[in-house]
Amino acid sequence: MTIPKIKHTDSNNFFLLCGPCAIEGEDMALRIAEKVVSITNKLKIPYVFKGSFKKANRSRIDSFTGIGDEKALRILRKVSETFDIPTVTDIHEVSDAAKAAEYVDILQIPAFLVRQTDLVVAAAKTGKVVNLKKGQFMSPEAMKHAVKKVKDSGNELALITDRGTMFGYQDMVVDFRGIPTMRQFAPTVLDVTHSLQQPNQSVGVTGGRPEMIETIARAGVVNNVDGLFIETHYDPANAKSDGANMLHLENLESLLTNLVAIRQLINSF
């Protein structure tokens, strides 16, 4: 699969989708992107900047949803142009597909919406890479149908991202048996940070277990995921979305250094 502007594709590393949960402003996006670009260039990791231009699936009506669609999309374009890297953002409505496709390289279908045929087809028909997040309620085997929707729409550029499976009402687990299954259908990414969410909290704000990030990420690399998805922020406690399960930006380099070493060992087998 070819992703525009992506670098270090000959390094035999996993690729990385990484950035803040939501675009909160231009300065924060550029600051995070600059740091991650520096780390991934050093470690020769193919890198895609991630940022949501809007958040439509919030727990409460007073939760942060964005700074304005066009404003956030223009920031994503500026990140891409400034650092010569590809970008990914999620879409929630059919009308979002063509709009976001003008600004980013990968369109992401949120897990709750991955069964929405019209949305998946609209994303596919833009010709962009489509990242299909596995529903928390879906089996790995069921993702072949989501991939088929993309391909039947004339687009061979599909990714699958596992973001955990519901375990009761307020916890998530990662079933690593699903990784080889989904890799039969499309390149597969492990969403490390969302897999550690603790949803449905009584206060209406999702919790998380960020102290488990390296544990989950290591297991993904050992089990041959093609890519990793990590949300990061220089001030997770004050991030406007998903701060409870994000990785602090200061901890990213040590984590990725360890993961690259594991990948190199796995490649030697």
Automatic annotation (TrEMBL):
Record-linked InterPro entries: Aldolase_TIM, DAHP1/KDSA, KDO8P_synthase
Pathway noted in the entry: Carbohydrate biosynthesis; 3-deoxy-D-manno-octulosonate biosynthesis; 3-deoxy-D-manno-octulosonate from D-ribulose 5-phosphate: step 2/3; Bacterial outer membrane biogenesis; lipopolysaccharide biosynthesis
Protein keywords: Cytoplasm, Transferase
GO MF, any single term: 3-deoxy-8-phosphooctulonate synthase activity
Primary localization class, coarse: cytoplasm
Keyword Amino-acid biosynthesis appears in the UniProt entry: no
Keyword Transferase: yes
EC number: 2.5.1.55
Gene3D superfamilies in the cross-refs: Aldolase class I (3.20.20.70)
Domain DAHP synthetase I/KDSA: 6-262
Subcellular location: Cytoplasm
Pfam families given in the database record: DAHP_synth_1
Catalytic reaction(s) noted: D-arabinose 5-phosphate + phosphoenolpyruvate + H2O = 3-deoxy-alpha-D-manno-2-octulosonate-8-phosphate + phosphate
Membership in a protein family: Belongs to the KdsA family.
The name this protein goes by in its record: 3-deoxy-8-phosphooctulonate synthase
Native source species: Winogradskyella alexanderae
